[in-house]
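Most newcomers find our protein records easier to grasp once they have seen one. Read left to right, the backbone structure tokens trace the chain's path through space. Nothing more is needed to start thinking about how sequence determines fold. An example says more than a description, so a record of this kind follows:
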Amino acid sequence: MGGSTEYYKMTTVKRERESVAASPSRQDMELARVAQRCIMEALDRSKAVKIKLESEAGDLPPIELPPASLRLIGQLLGLMSEGRPIALMPEKQELTTVEAANFLNVSRPFVIKEIDAGRIPHRKVGSHRRVLLSDLIEYAESMHAGHEAALENLSKLSVELGDY
């Protein structure tokens, strides 16, 4: 088949049943930071086509993962270690106008106004609008770029007027 496989031992720690907190604790953030560093360092040195995880006790069947999946896990752990909120969604996920407004941190009427103006692509399901997550991300990036350009212009004007 070609390619190599690297083996890593995986240890599981049993935890009492607990509710998942909205944001990670300081201890979880530190664990995520250490785990992220270990995963990313291992991947940086690896030329493996797949990586095999085995439980230390051997009581679970081993699993093989592509390095790309561990890289994604490493990135998620990096975000978690910073205490940042994380949401995983398929790129082709459709959102309601309420979900789109929450994603953009704006009001629902603003989202509808942007949809009606043709700035956010959508489709209708009956009388309801649906927006693709990928389209919303593109819109958010263009909105952010517009804000950055406006701030840059304000800064230039301020310098020209001698206020800065």
Summary: Residues 133-160 form the longest helix (28 residues). The first strand starts at residue 5 and ends at 10. Residues 5-81 form one domain.
